[in-house]
Write the structure tokens for this entry.
Amino acid sequence: MAKVKGAIVVDIKRCKGCELCIEACPTDVIRMDTKVNSKGYHYAYMEHPELCTGCVNCALVCPDSVITVYRTKVEE
Amino acid sequence: MGETRLMKGNEAIAEAAIRAGCDAYFGYPITPQSEIIEYLASQEPHKRTGMVLLQAESELGAINMVYGAAGTGKKAMTSSSSPGISLMQEGLSYMAGSELPCLVVNIVRGGPGLGTIQPSQADYFQATKGGGHGDYKLIVLAPASVQEMSDFVPLAFDLAFKYRNPVMILSDGVIGQMMEKVELFDQMPRATEFDQTWVTTGKTADRERNIHSSLDLDPARFEKHNHHLQEKYKKIIENEVRFEKIQCDDADYVLVAYGSSSRICQKTQKLAREKGIKAGLLRPITLFPFPYEEIEKLANHVKGFLAVELSAGQMVEDVELAVGKKTRIEFYGRIGGMIPTPTEILTVLEEKYLGG
Amino acid sequence: MEVKDIIKEENLVFKKTGLLTDKILSYCPGCGHGVAHRIVMEVIEEMGIAEDTIGIAPVGCSVLAYEFMNIDMQQVPHGRAPATATGIKRCWPDKFVFTYQGDGDLAAIGTSETIHACNRGENITIIFINNGIYGMTGGQMAPTTLPGMKSSTTPYGRDVELMGNPIKMTELVAHLPGTYYISRQAVHTPLSVRRAKKAIQKAFETQKQNKGLSFVEIVSNCNSGWKMTPIQANKWMEENMFPFYPLGDIKVDGKIIDK
């Protein structure tokens, strides 16, 4: 059976750490890094990449358009 | 030879706008200039040339419609009278700041406040010294006849586009309402090509996007922009001073007056000569740039100037700047909508300079 | 499957539209302006009309919209955007013209320009961001501030006896014959973003068909002005703003929807 696998790439420089992507993610993939970017913001990263389905919800609500989303199907 | 007609000054402006290939007029009625929009409406300019005509909800609406049209490279104009022009100052400041061309006609009435619908020249400071906020200048043309009301419309558009700056035709109820013979120039075509280096008509693949904004939060960069504007105004001063001189070369006394008061002073000057008084008349045609140099030159040989205005004394300050301490300057003004007669001014000249 | 095997061009499903510049947005973290900017630009990109579109930036938080929207733009005096848009559209009826305005710009100082552009039925699109507060000047009361809501000029809450009631511009303009499509949306959840984008697309389609004025309000957050975290602000918005400013289409095909 085919399973959907996804991944996100966060533009760390532009992320403002608002956490709206965390709230929007249905599979609890995203967390804020403890490190900060040059603007002093924590930034989003995939804490649980294996759970990402590439649903784009995080990217849709991201006010700064910092999230790029990829998705593919894999045969189990 | 163009077509000759008997017209009101306001009508001549409107007809000239259509003939000059003006693309859009946005305005709001106010006395004593409502004939401009009324005449345009009667002409159905969308049928004659495709020109847009729209009565706006206010002068604020009108000037910002002009701002939008001007941003796209169109020849856009509005007209109003003093209280309405006050409302337009915000838009004019934005247009000067973002360097957009337009024509604004001010058929001045007496102020301050709602004032009177009678003629006045009390908006000189507002027109020539900025008017709105910030360091900027309008190019200001002062017609003294219905013929010039017509002729200055294409001139105003030429100057507006040459310098990408708003141009004002500063007239008043006398010239606006007066009927005279006017020789109309032939119909000019409306522009079909627009300078893609600055117009906002949609970013195409072959050019960078264009932005009109007067905002810059970086003070160093914004100072540079302001210097650029000042350089432009300097060029305008160097190249665009216009004036008319009548019998100034041998004059002992020179009347200085523009627009409607210069028409009255023309008669005064003749009456003076008839009485053996060597009088001349200097009429500034551009109020910005003002003919300082010419007046300064005259100051070397004349015994005195008499500035005549329908105001409490505004242009006279520029005459004083030009003359300095070289010779005497006197002022005569009627205010509140009152208009002096030629003999009244002659009496003033005689009283001030010839001991009555 | 490794993440690096997924991150490949052929698997790309979402990236920032090229009609947004690479400048970092001047908005606070979590502010809805960013999403609103993006979906407007996505619609313009997807409709293939970028070369024929002129945008109008207001005064307010989004005054710098022209720095972010990668198309021809004009910044205008406070509240006058619908007049400027009128000036452009009347001269270029085949172009797409939209304004992007906040609640102070559109519903206070620019009420006259808004109502008259709507009433004349100008074929323009108005995008109206309503966050119930003046963000840029530091959180003062807006015409849309809710009764009882705190702001820096209503520190004890908006007292309608003293300060009057909030104004529902969107319902107001829906009653004008010149408006054809009127909708109120939000951009705080994936579903709301999808709906808002559809509404904006419908607005631009309305313009394409020369049907009259299209107007999309986006009820948004101002976590800085409201003094909340972005997530708290969105929750507060759902609980307080949406009951007063209910979401959904208000006028479709020139007809007000019965609710």
User: Anything to note?
Assistant: Chains B and A do not touch (no CB pair under 8 Å).
